[in-house]
Amino acid sequence: MTDARPATPRPSGSSPTDPLDRFFRLRQHGTTVRTELLAGLTTFIVMSYIIAVNPAILSAAGLDVRAVATSTCVVAGVMSIAMGLYANRAIALAPGLGLNAIVAFTLAGSMGLSAAEAMGVVVTEGIIITALVLLGVRQYVLDVVPLALKQAIAVGIGFFILFIGLRNAGLITFLPGQTGTVDGLLELSPLRTWPIFVAIVGLLATVVLIARRVPGAILWGILIASVVAFLVPDDVATFPDDPFAGPDFDLLGEFSFGYVAELGLLTAVLSVFSLMLADFFDTMGTLVGVGSQAGYLDERGEFPNAQKPLLVDSLAAVAGGAASASTATSYIESAAGVGVGGRTGLVAVVTGALFLLALPFVALVTAIPGVATAPALIVVGVLIVEVLAPRVTTTASGETVRREGIDFGDLEEALPVVLTMLVMPLTFNITNGIGAGFVSYVLIKVARGKFRDVHPALYVVAAAFLLYFLRWSLFDADF
């Protein structure tokens, strides 16, 4: 069958004999080396905030900031280069924001795992996802879960990140048992301290820069807040004794599978499963979002030949856990590079190389206070909610595909979605939110007599989560 699409115009600045052109098929994708280099730089600038934010999150698990920054750069650099060379897609990778919160505040926080054991959960889910990719099962599993639940999981994680940002900024305070309040009530903090001032300045700067469409707005917001933190009184920020100490590789290989004995088999399995679900949907949302902008999608709005990028993404989860950087995943910020014309894996290679080049300067990250990175968490948390909006994607053939948002007027759809989104931040546990969504989805379908609308696999998953929620009464369990 003859391809009726018009021939791709020959870009200036590239020759079919250039090694880069031949390897990355630049002419075939209608791009040039110069465009790809600029796109790689743009992607790095937009997503480089993770070098500061990931250590800020994982420090809650007791990990050293400089060592986490080192692991972050190593994993982001190596896996982005792997994506470019193996999959030839303009998609960069780094430790996932939201996924790292699961590690720090759920696994190592409320569940009481050590940092090494929490990273063992990450490695386990990465190995399982990799096996599912190799067996061709990953797409099937994703198809089983309703779109509404996929979106709700993403938004719930967004709210969780937003909650952490507000807390780190000092804008909300947990006041257990104080006179005149309900036990455990969250209240607005008095807006009169210098750390809060720094956070508000950073938040305003970030919002203004995003509104003005400034590349790297989140990173610039962190830097502006950090400068202000050094200028105000009260020692909000302190400069490191050795700002050019270089990278610290001590966390590489620091993970343990002892979490099974610590949690018990049921909770351990569900913890791995919950993290795996979050990783699943985060990746697929990124592939579709970036793919629609780059023209990777086919006429049905699907990502063809997704096996290669999915494999790299799965291995990145293993690498992130093994390096104590949390699970690494494909970044939606890759759309920034695509937006300036990037189309091939050369973009990801350039982005990865820049992460590696940042290694000598990671000690400077220790100078950035938590109140300076808090605005980034707040803004990213809000931006994630966008997945609920109706979306129009463009396929490789130019066809537009419209996806509707959540119907909150339908209790059958609204109940599991709202429970998923709110239980996560309110219980400070992402596993609880995902479980509440699955259980309520199946129960309301059954209550309405729609047994056949529920995939058999969802009954199994919902039953497992129901056991998880009833473990205290059924098993008198402490885990």
Order the strands across the largest sheet as they lie in space. Answer: 1-4
**How many DSSP E strands?**
6
Mean pLDDT: 85
What structural class should be given to the helix and strand makeup?
mainly alpha
What's the shape? globular
Radius of gyration: 22 Å
Percent helix = 55-70%
Total DSSP helices: 20
Provide an overview of this structure:
The protein is built from 20 helices and six strands. It has helices spanning 19-24, 33-47, 50-58, 65-87, 99-110, 115-134, 138-144, 147-168, 194-211, 217-231, 259-263, 265-294, 307-322, 334-339, 345-357, 370-384, 411-427, 430-447, 456-469, 471-475; strands at residues 93-95, 172-175, 185-188, 328-330, 391-394, 400-403. It has one domain. The strands form three sheets. A two-stranded antiparallel ribbon has the order 1-4. Strands 2-3 form a two-stranded antiparallel sheet. A two-stranded antiparallel sheet has the order 5-6. Helix 5 (99-110) packs across helix 6, helix 8 (147-168) packs antiparallel against helix 16 (370-384) and helix 18 (430-447) packs across helix 19 (456-469). It is mainly alpha-helical.
